[in-house]
């Protein structure tokens, strides 16, 4: 057969063929439905690098009447060498009829040279009638491998393996619904055994997939860093002409401010989902793996479960302050007897303590602090109009909650395969479910210091702060989604 | 990479920040084709990418060339101003109307002393930490540009419009990314100032030459200090002339010239002449080779060298920019690495429409039933008992169908089911109600007539016993078999072991 190698995914209806194709092709628009006959046509999914097709995955309709087709094949005695021709004869014999339609459609690409990926459901018991399908596939003469998918909860993989081993030289477990990226790569690498001449193409595809994954992770880090930088520097202002309107304006301003924070977070999520090609399946259900990140950004439970605990926040604040004070101690050659570290730590801890219990940002009059601020406020009061500002959000836990939610969302996105649809059962857990609580102390301190500096320069945050944040977030994402060949971080 | 490229790169990065990554990937692959990796260095790859972008998106803002052009214009203006100032300074310093001769001290202080001092300060600002000397200068420069930038942009783009906002955001972004390129900035600024310096000295040189060639000038020197005699002054001048004296001996003033041109304003005459006019007219004009050489060597030449160094250094730094910040690294990865596409080649057809679930069948009236085990459902007494309990009929016969060997074609269903009602098909709910089953049920209906009851019982049968199928599976089967539109066909879960 000319052209790139083809791998036809075949099997009984509703055994997860399309799920496997959706996962391998990262295409969540592929229809995956428990109703039989969802896939009625042969669909090709080329895997192309820079426009060059390396190999093609072929999704096929399922076997629906295999015993009858096998009976037809056996109705005339033929030698082993004649069997592929006999299968081709079957296709011709029923051409133009409504008989054995699906069998003919799925066998056509195999007779044209496609390799076989035979899919079974390892959570259901093996039944002898499946041998009809395997026998037909053997009659085609094409090399094939069997994939034991997992649709339900039970485990009958062992009995399936005993049967499959007799018909296929390669048998692999492949859970299309929870397979990791690394397992996907391993399956692709197995294709090389099936088709040795396709080895360069498969290798190139694997390399490109790893590069793409790394690129996506870097892009996701940038998205999360942008989110943090934007939210930590967000401010809203309002002008009121008389004091009576102030209260109403204040509420409106607070609401608008928090809505903008929520909208910005939503935008980041959509962009990360899109990066990983989760365009169809939205993470809208509250019962995802880590349900907390789906709640409102300012929900009480969110703040209870995510971010850092008050003690951790105090420690982070004190450490950051102590680091600054320590720099002063260093500059004076230790003549301060470490007073800088002590004072810095105390001030950092005290700052973290202030407003620890607040979830929402508060409205303040616009203007400089101190006497100049009083003068400005007095002048505005005299003139009859006042301007109020809300933001940047000053609560010390705010960036941590935000980061935690972004990381949990990222974790859910990278773990979700493109075969999954609809609601996914939630994992139980009432303890803190966040990720940042597990950060090493040094990492927490680094991030805390960055958050402070970004907030301090809210009017015009320097780019390098944002870039530093991106680098730190990228390091965390590498732990969440490590790639083959990368050193494992603790 | 040029300065224009660098600015356009930053603008493009800012523009792409909000764009969809997939679209960016597709655009860049389209622009560069499949040979991005062949572009060599990251700089040349980015330069090529920017060139393609400018050509492909002429409507977008690509301010690099405009800014580079503005810098060239500024340099040209500085050159013109420098030429005029130099010419003016030389004309003023060498002004001679036949009265008091021109004091060479003034010339040396203005064109050698002051210039050397400024030059040393300039070098210091580069060799000492920038924070000590250079940074304030740059701060002033940046402040100046920041102040006039919005007006310039508004004038260039008109007072309103998105373009103006674009230009303003460009300035903001370049300012926030300054630290990435701060090494280039001093050399750009140095190039501009030294272009002015070179032009100033060239203007001064031309001004001097005009006066020397087209007028006569009497030079002199004087001092109030008694100890500062001609011998000491000559020693200083000789030291100054060392760098160029070997090349042009006349440019090293002789002791005789120095002694002959000492001037006394009290007497209104050269000290040695003792008269109103110089005793040696060829001597009083003899200073010009030295003065011009000093101007060239201590004024023009250092500026030329600094200008050349600034230009070379700026170009080198631009060519060797690390381009390792997070955003550019991601961009380079996007451009260099192969893009893998795994999507569908053609859109999927609409899903088949499923009819509503089959209506509930009326209850059978018989006392014996025939059982068909579909697709290798394991037979056994337990299963027969379960069927009997649920249908309230004794099991008269059990037949397999849908198995590996396709035996049902040869079965005479009418004979097998004779005298029994209903006919029960037991299937496993996790299997799909496929076309083979639909055919079997159609065959059964044809054989048994329109009013015999057909019951499909769905179960999970394994070593642990018989369990009813899940409600979702039963629903699926009801939908699937509903397409037969058979009022005497029922689909139920097999309740199994009590």
Q: Could you characterize what this model shows?
A:
The complex is a heterodimer of chains A (490) and B (498). Chain A has 16 helices and nine strands. In chain A, the strands form two sheets. In chain A, strands 2-3-1-4-5-6 form a six-stranded mixed beta sheet, with helices on both faces. A three-stranded antiparallel beta sheet of chain A has the order 7-9-8. In chain B, 36% of the residues are buried. In chain B, α4 runs parallel beside α8 and α8 runs antiparallel to α12. The mean pLDDT of chain B is 81. Chain B starts with a helix and ends in a 5-residue tail after the last strand. Chain B is an alpha/beta fold and 498 residues long. The interface between A and B is large, with 76 and 57 residues.
Spell the H/E element sequence of chain A: EHEEHHHEHEHEHHEHHHHEHEHHH
Structural class of chain A: alpha/beta
Strand content of chain A: 5-15%
Shape, per Cα inertia axes of chain A: elongated
Q: Name the largest protein-protein interface in this structure.
A: A-B, 76 and 57 residues
Give the beta-strand count of chain B: 11
Oligomer: heterodimer
Query: Could you list the spans of chain B in which at least 5 consecutive residues all have pLDDT below 50?
Result: none
Gap between N and C termini of chain A? 48 Å
Which structural class should the secondary elements of chain B be placed in? alpha/beta
Largest sheet of chain A: 6 strands, mixed
């Amino acid at each position: 057969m000319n052209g790139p190698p083809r791998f036809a995914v075949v099997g009984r209806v509703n055994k997860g063929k399309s799920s496997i194709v959706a996962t391998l092709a990262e295409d969540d628009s592929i229809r995956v439905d428990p109703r039989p006959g969802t896939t009625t046509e042969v669909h090709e999914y080329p895997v192309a690098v820079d426009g060059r097709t390396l190999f093609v995955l072929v999704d096929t309709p399922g076997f629906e009447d295999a015993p009858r087709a096998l009976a037809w094949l056996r109705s005339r005695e033929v030698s082993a060498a004649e069997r592929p021709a006999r299968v081709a004869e079957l296709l011709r014999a029923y051409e133009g009829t409504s008989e054995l339609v699906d069998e003919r459609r799925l066998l056509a690409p195999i007779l044209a040279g496609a390799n076989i990926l035979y899919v079974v459901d390892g959570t259901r018991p093996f039944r002898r009638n499946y041998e009809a399908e395997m026998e037909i596939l053997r009659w085609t003469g094409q090399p094939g491998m069997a994939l034991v998918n997992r649709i339900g909860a039970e485990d009958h993989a062992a009995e399936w393996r005993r049967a499959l081993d007799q018909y296929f030289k390669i048998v692999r477990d492949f859970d299309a619904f929870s397979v990791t990226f690394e397992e996907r790569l391993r399956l692709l690498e197995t294709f090389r055994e099936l088709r040795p001449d396709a080895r360069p193409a498969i290798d190139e595809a694997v390399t490109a997939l790893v590069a793409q994954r790394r690129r996506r992770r870097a892009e996701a880090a940038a998205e999360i860093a942008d989110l943090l930088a934007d939210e930590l520097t967000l401010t809203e202002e309002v002008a009121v002409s008389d004091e009576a309107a102030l209260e109403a304006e204040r509420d409106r301003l607070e609401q608008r401010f928090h809505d903008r924070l929520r909208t910005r977070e939503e935008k980041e999520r959509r962009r990360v989902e899109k990066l990983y090609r989760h365009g169809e399946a939205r993470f809208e259900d509250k019962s995802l793996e880590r349900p907390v990140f789906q709640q409102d950004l300012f929900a009480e439970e969110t703040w209870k479960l995510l971010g850092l605990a008050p003690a951790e926040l105090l420690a982070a604040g004190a450490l950051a302050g102590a680091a600054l004070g320590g720099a002063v101690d260093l500059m004076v050659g230790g003549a301060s007897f470490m007073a800088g570290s002590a004072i810095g730590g105390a001030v950092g801890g005290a700052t973290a303590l202030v407003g620890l219990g607040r979830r929402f940002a508060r409205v303040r009059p616009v203007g400089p602090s101190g006497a100049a601020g009083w003068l400005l406020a007095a002048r505005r009061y005299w003139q009859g109009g006042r301007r109020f500002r809300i933001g940047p959000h000053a609560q010390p836990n705010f960036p941590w909650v935000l980061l935690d939610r972004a990381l949990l969302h990222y974790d859910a996105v990278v773990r979700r395969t493109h075969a999954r649809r609809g609601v996914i059962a939630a994992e139980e857990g009432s303890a803190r479910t966040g990720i940042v609580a597990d950060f090493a102390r040094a990492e927490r301190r680094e991030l805390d210091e960055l958050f402070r500096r970004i907030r301090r320069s809210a009017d015009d945050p320097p780019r390098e702060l944002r870039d530093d944040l991106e680098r730190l977030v990228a390091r965390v994402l590498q732990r969440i989604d490590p790639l083959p060949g990368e050193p494992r971080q603790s | 990479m040029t300065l224009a490229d660098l600015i356009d790169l930053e603008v493009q990065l800012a523009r792409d920040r909000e764009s969809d990554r997939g679209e960016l990937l597709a655009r860049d692959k389209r622009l560069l084709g499949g040979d991005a990796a062949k572009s060599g260095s990251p700089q040349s790859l980015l330069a090529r990418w920017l060139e393609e972008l400018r050509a492909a998106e002429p409507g977008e803002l690509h301010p690099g060339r405009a800014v580079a052009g503005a810098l060239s214009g500024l340099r040209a203006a500085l050159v013109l101003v420098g030429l005029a100032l130099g010419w003016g300074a030389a004309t003023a310093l060498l002004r001679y109307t036949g009265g008091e001769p021109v004091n060479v001290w003034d010339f040396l202080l203005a064109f050698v002393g002051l210039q050397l001092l400024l030059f040393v300060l300039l070098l210091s600002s580069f060799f000492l930490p920038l924070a000590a000397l250079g940074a304030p200068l740059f701060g002033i420069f940046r402040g100046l540009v920041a102040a006039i930038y919005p007006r310039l942009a508004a004038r260039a783009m008109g007072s309103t419009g998105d373009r103006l906002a674009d230009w303003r955001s460009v300035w903001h972004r370049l300012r926030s990314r300054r630290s990435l390129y701060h090494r280039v900035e001093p050399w750009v600024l140095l190039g501009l100032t030294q272009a002015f310096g070179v032009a100033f000295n060239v203007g001064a040189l031309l001004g001097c030459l005009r006066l020397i060639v087209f007028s006569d000038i009497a030079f002199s020197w004087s001092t109030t200090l008694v100890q500062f005699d001609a011998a000491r002054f000559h020693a200083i001048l000789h030291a100054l002339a060392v760098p160029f004296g070997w090349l042009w001996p006349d440019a090293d003033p002789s002791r005789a010239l120095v002694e002959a041109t000492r001037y006394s304003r009290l007497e209104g005459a050269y000290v040695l002449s003792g008269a109103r006019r110089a005793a040696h007219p060829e001597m009083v004009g003899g200073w010009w080779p030295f003065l011009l050489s000093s101007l060239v060597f201590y004024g023009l030449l250092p500026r030329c060298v600094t200008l050349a160094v600034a230009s070379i250094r700026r170009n080198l730094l631009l060519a060797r920019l690390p381009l390792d910040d997070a955003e550019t690294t991601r961009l380079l990865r996007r451009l260099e690495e192969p893009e893998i596409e795994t999507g569908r080649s053609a859109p999927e057809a609409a899903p088949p429409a499923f009819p509503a679930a089959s209506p509930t069948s009326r209850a059978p009236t018989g006392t014996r039933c025939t059982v068909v085990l579909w697709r290798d459902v394991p037979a056994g007494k337990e299963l027969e008992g379960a069927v009997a309990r649920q249908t309230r009929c004794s099991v008269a016969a059990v037949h397999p169908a849908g198995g590996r060997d396709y035996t049902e074609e040869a079965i005479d269903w009418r004979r097998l089911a004779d005298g029994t009602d209903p006919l029960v098909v037991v299937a496993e709910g996790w299997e799909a109600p496929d076309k083979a089953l639909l055919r079997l049920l159609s065959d059964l209906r044809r054989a048994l007539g329109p009013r015999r009851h057909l019951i499909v019982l769905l179960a999970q049968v394994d070593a642990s016993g018989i369990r009813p199928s899940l409600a979702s599976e039963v629903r699926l089967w009801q939908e699937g078999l509903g397409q037969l539109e058979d009022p005497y066909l029922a689909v139920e879960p097999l309740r199994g072991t009590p």
